[in-house]
């Protein structure tokens, strides 16, 4: 066992504590990655606040990049020194969902308390989301990593591990947006901006961003939105219909965890349109809608976990788009912080002004 630094959650809603923890060497099918950067996702914050339950103490963090520093047996064709991104998508490869091309909903269970990390005194420590990347190193299954170019900056690359693939994938994979269709994206935060990019890349005719502030709507236009509508309007869906030339949207992607957004989402739809549920509220929260209307208008509601991506297929082409200048990544980073500043970075993320805050490890 090695000793590394990590940000540990010992009480829901309390600040994370920087502690020494133990991490085991990689076993069968696993790799050890020495991290360069990890972004702060709202999923990490929801877990740390207790919104989704889970075991404590725990190490969160799942949107990371780094270099392989050790390899276990049976870990594919990776080698020490390879630069990779680390995702939470751990795929067994053999369950019906993995075999059917849906590794984001792999049905093989994972026990986070039996993972590679322990507290400094050897007590159980939850490796949250099969990553535990608010730490100097991680040991993960080789199915969770994808190689990146040697010259790609780590703070930029880590964004591809969650926020980018979730947003772009929601538009391209889950929504299956086709050229000429219209899209609405509710929420212009980190994931929402990537859903907007995904809609643009897919060839959407018009992309309308809906958010609470004019500032975020202006940012959304920089990422590809053709129109912006304030969610604070009395009837924002009417403004969306006007922006779309008197019709509703073929696709509405809800990228925030706010229940009013889910309540209102069907109002933005055209006949035959569909709502894509991307953002996640706290467990137990419920939304209301009229099934009669959705059924009568042939509309639908679809959940999208991690953009329904196959990381070994989708991340390489997203990197290629980035190199061509067609996918914005650098512009998503709002601030860079050290591991010791993680609580300040989380507070800044909670303020609602940040697109993505990134923890950068000094190597």
Protein topology:
Layout: E1 2-8, E2 17-23, E3 30-39, H1 42-49, E4 58-59, E5 63-71, E6 83-86, H2 96-99, E7 117-119, E8 126-127, E9 137-141, E10 145-147, H3 154-157, H4 163-174, E11 182-186, H5 190-202, E12 206-211, H6 214-222, E13 227-230, H7 236-243, E14 249-254, H8 259-264, E15 269-277, H9 291-296, E16 300-303, H10 311-324, E17 333-337, H11 342-350, E18 356-360
Parallel strand pairs: 4-8, 11-12, 11-14, 12-13, 14-15, 15-16, 17-18
Antiparallel strand pairs: 1-2, 2-7, 3-5, 3-9, 3-18, 5-6, 6-10
Helix pairs in contact: 4-5
Task: Write a brief structural summary.
The protein is of the alpha/beta class and 363 residues long. The chain has helices spanning 42-49, 96-99, 154-157, 163-174, 190-202, 214-222, 236-243, 259-264, 291-296, 311-324, 342-350, and strands spanning 2-8, 17-23, 30-39, 58-59, 63-71, 83-86, 117-119, 126-127, 137-141, 145-147, 182-186, 206-211, 227-230, 249-254, 269-277, 300-303, 333-337, 356-360.
Q: Would you give an account of this structure?
A:
There is one protein chain. The chain has 363 residues and is of the alpha/beta class. It folds into 2 domains: 2-161 and 328-360, Medium-chain alcohol dehydrogenases, catalytic domain (Quinone Oxidoreductase, Chain A, domain 1); 167-304, 3-Layer(aba) Sandwich (Rossmann fold), CATH 3.40.50.720. Helices cover 26% and strands 26% of the residues. The protein is built from 11 helices and 18 strands. The protein has helices at 42-49, 96-99, 154-157, 163-174, 190-202, 214-222, 236-243, 259-264, 291-296, 311-324, 342-350, and strands spanning 2-8, 17-23, 30-39, 58-59, 63-71, 83-86, 117-119, 126-127, 137-141, 145-147, 182-186, 206-211, 227-230, 249-254, 269-277, 300-303, 333-337, 356-360. Strands 3, 5, 6, 9, 10, 17 and 18 form a 7-stranded mixed β-sheet that branches. α4 (163-174) packs parallel to α5. The radius of gyration is 20 Å and the shape is globular.
């Amino acid at each position: 066992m090695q000793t590394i630094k990590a940000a540990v959650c010992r009480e829901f809603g309390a600040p994370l504590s920087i502690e020494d923890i133990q991490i085991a060497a990689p076993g069968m099918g696993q790799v050890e990655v020495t991290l360069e950067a990890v972004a702060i996702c709202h999923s990490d914050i929801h877990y740390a606040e207790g919104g989704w339950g889970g075991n404590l103490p725990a190490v969160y963090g799942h949107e990371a990049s780094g270099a392989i520093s050790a390899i276990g047996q049976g870990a594919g064709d990776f080698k020490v020194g390879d630069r990779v991104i680390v995702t939470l998508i751990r795929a067994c490869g053999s369950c019906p969902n993995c075999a059917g091309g849906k590794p984001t909903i792999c049905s093989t269970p994972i026990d986070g308390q039996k993972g590679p990390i322990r507290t400094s005194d050897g007590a159980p420590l939850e490796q949250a989301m099969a990553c535990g990347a608010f730490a100097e190193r991680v040991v993960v299954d080789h199915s969770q990593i994808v190689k990146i170019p040697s010259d790609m900056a780590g703070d930029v690359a880590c964004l591809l591990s969650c926020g980018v693939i979730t947003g772009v994938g929601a538009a391209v994979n889950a929504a299956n947006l086709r050229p000429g269709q219209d899209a609405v994206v509710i929420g212009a935060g980190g994931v929402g901006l990537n859903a907007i990019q995904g809609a643009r890349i897919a060839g959407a005719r018009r992309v309308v961003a809906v958010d609470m502030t004019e500032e975020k709507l202006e940012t959304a236009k920089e990422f590809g939105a053709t129109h912006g509508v304030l969610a604070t309007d009395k009837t924002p869906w009417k403004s969306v219909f006007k922006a779309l030339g008197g019709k509703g949207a073929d696709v509405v992607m809800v990228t925030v965890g706010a229940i009013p957004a889910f309540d209102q989402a069907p109002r933005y739809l055209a006949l035959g349109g569909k709502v894509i549920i991307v953002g996640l509220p706290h467990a137990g929260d419920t939304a209301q809608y009229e099934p009669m209307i959705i059924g009568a208008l042939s509309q639908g509601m679809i959940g999208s976990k991690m953009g329904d991506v196959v990381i070994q297929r989708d991340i390489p082409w997203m990197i290629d788009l980035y190199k061509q200048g067609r996918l914005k990544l650098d512009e998503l980073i709002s601030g860079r912080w050290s591991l010791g500043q993680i609580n300040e970075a989380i507070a800044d993320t909670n303020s609602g002004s940040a697109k993505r805050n990134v923890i950068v490890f000094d190597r």
